[in-house]
UniProtKB/TrEMBL annotation:
One of its GO terms (molecular function) is RNA binding. SUPFAM superfamilies: P-loop containing nucleoside triphosphate hydrolases (SSF52540), PIN domain-like (SSF88723), Prokaryotic type KH domain (KH-domain type II) (SSF54814). It comes from the Archaea. In the N-terminal section; belongs to the PINc/VapC protein family. Pfam families: PIN, T2SSE. This is ATPase. SMART domains: AAA, PINc. Keywords: RNA-binding.
Amino acid sequence: MNVVPDTSVVVDGRISRGVEDGTYEGATVYVPEAVVGEVEAQANGGRQTGWDALEELQRLVELADDGAITVEYVGERADEDDIKRAAAGAIDAIIRDVAAAHDATFVTSDIVQAEVAEGKGIDVEFLEPLEPDFEALAIEEYLDEDTMSLHLKAGMVPKAKRGDVGEIEYQAIGEDALDESLVREYATEIVSTAKRADDAFIELSEDGMTIAQVRDLRIAISEPPFSERVEITAVRPIVKTTMDDYTQADALRERLLERDRGVLIAGAPGAGKSTFAQAVAEFLADAGNVVKTMEKPRDLQLDEEVTQYTALSGSMEKTADSLLMVRPDYTIYDEVRKTDDFEVFSDMRLAGVGMVGVVHATRPIDALQRLVGRVELGMIPQIVDTVVYIEAGNVETVYDVTTEVKVPEGLMEEDLARPVIQVRDFETNVPAYELYTFNRQVVTVPLDGESGGAGESGVDKLAKQEVEREIQAATRDRVAVDIRGPNDAVVYVSDDDISHVIGKGGGRIADIENRLGIDIDVRTLDERPTESAADPDSDTDDAQAGEIVTPEITSRHIIVPMGDDRAGETVEVQADGEYLFTATVGRGGDIKVSRGSTIAEELERAIDTERMITVVPNA
């Protein structure tokens, strides 16, 4: 009896089992070199099917050594082009030719291959594909009902995050360090199961990183060179909720069903954002809406009625284009992080699809600010009209987002009216923030006392920063600003700079006043009350009391590190007590000065001459 197996039965080990049960005992097994080339490429690519096939070929050689069968490798080896065209039948055709040339029985579990071979007059034995019975993964022994995530790393003790939502603790769950071979064994089992089980799939497969979904476990496997050691991270939901489990549930349900909405669900990592998103998705589906999801990777645990999509050909934009053809009522986008994600979210929302996006944010307003700069300011309420902030598994804050043309809160002149985005507390309808364009910049002004300055409103702080920025551009020395009212400011500059700031016939200061919409009185620093009362050596005293910093010089900037807690603060930068410039600390907790500017040159000279650089709060 002559037998030619194709790749499908080599992978599942059917030939060696057939020899052992007597079906193929004494047969000559012609193994096509095309099969060897295909499974070798699979193994090199990290696919478990390739490794399984290589084990089967080794078993056949062992059976041949025992005299149970004869094994011969025949035919042409599949080249790179054949392997690339395997899905189109290139390798299948080579294998069929081998069977015909050796007058052998062609054994396959591929129904298409069997039908084609029969059509060519080849003797075919079709074996029904095996239905593998997958048991629990070995790593599931580490899990209990309170385990949210499992962390296994070669050379380290196993660890896990356990506890209730909002009270998760990262803790060791073993005493002995894991051997690398054991972690790799776990990884092999996970990949094999993900490729073969009906309730599992491979979400991502790149050199050094594989992400698999096995039942309710999302598992990331990293290995060198991507990570320094083999590591397995398995995450699963530990809580499944409904809308009834949250505060403001009735109001939120009514709002979501009133019309298609644009919703951002925000919160810190582990706060329960995805859990709430699942509850929203199932509520909307139960209410008769067509609901789909966009996830990469897919890890929301939802009823089968909700179809879950991932990135199509690696692109969420292509997924969105496909979804627009499906025309869902609502789409759950988990997670919206990069600019491309926000653009896709916005495009779908403007196309009329209800959108629910999950974003990371440490404050409710931060979720909305993620859209600033990515879409036009006036479009934001059309894209997002609701922000739900989750903290410790509960709905902490809900914002209603609208727009109207008005004079921003704190300003008085009617000609300062402009489109203003109002962010209101959904429960109390009390305004919390306003977003608008001020001097060509988008600003966010808190209306609930969160400005952070004692006695200084958010508008006052904003106006002071903008006036300082405008005046500083026309000076080389120190600038101080006092806001005297909603539309009045006094600016103090050095004697040398005062004429330059005012300009010929008052032209320069008039231009600045027109741009800012505020009246500015220009005076010398000596006229400032706090300056005239100060000790002549007060600059040195301030330097001694200030914070000593070590600037970093890059190819494009000089960076003065301040710390996240100083973000938004207006400070003076000094060198050995001598004023250099006034600046506002950025969101990243540092001050960046573009190299090539006058200020940067002075600061760089101070650094080169080893002068002490200090930062003091602006008076």
